[in-house]
């Protein structure tokens, strides 16, 4: 008989549910989930309101400091690197094809990259990068269950909470399901590595279970929600009340009202930012 597998303390902790584990400490991580969500939304809005590339760089600098405090700088850098194909294409397309630009950098036959296109593409790239990293920082520092539980405690509708939770968990769950399907198909001698044509032949055996698995999971979630009285008109009892403080509530209202005032002033033309 094979000896029983010995698990260390780290392995036992890893097998515990997320809500049972000891919460991560830190000045930024210990903030209320709604506070971090408001800060992330305000940072994303600031990338538009401040205008020009200086505003986006300012937001990115704030995000860098917050990521270092929360000890997620490496993960945030990985998220930023994943956006490079998209933002790189934005810079290239605007550099070569911006309408109305007449200040070429150099002539390359029929193509002429322009300084105006390069500046506009860089500005749009920095703005999109600031928005995506602001929301990514909220995701990296806030457990989804904590955020949804806190939003429900504040009276947010259940349907909206379900939509937010499903959207946030969709990408990690899809990646996890894809890994499970690939391992299962490899166990059935499906070749998912090697040359391009071999990988192309393996797309259909992988895509089929992915689609049917997603549909089955939606049906299971619907049945589970109805079994838990999701459509009941009464307000549910919140079992976990996350820590909050008067200072955080004040900061949230100041950021929220300040952002609304800046947007209204920009639309009305009272506040003209570069």
Briefly say what this structure is.
The protein is mostly helical. It has helices spanning 9-14, 33-49, 52-70, 73-82, 84-97, 115-141, 144-153, 158-187, 196-201, 203-227, 246-268.
Give the key terms.
single chain; 274 residues; mainly alpha; 2 domains; 11 helices; 68% helix; 0% strand; flat; disordered N terminus
Explain what this protein looks like in three dimensions.
The protein is 68% helix and 0% strand. It has 11 helices and no strands.
Rg over alpha carbons: 24 Å
Question: In total, how many beta strands?
Answer: 0
* Overall residue-averaged pLDDT value: 77
Could you give the distance between the termini? 74 Å
How many domains? The number is: 2
Helix proportion: 55-70%
Write the layout of secondary structure elements.
Blueprint: H1 9-14, H2 33-49, H3 52-70, H4 73-82, H5 84-97, H6 115-141, H7 144-153, H8 158-187, H9 196-201, H10 203-227, H11 246-268
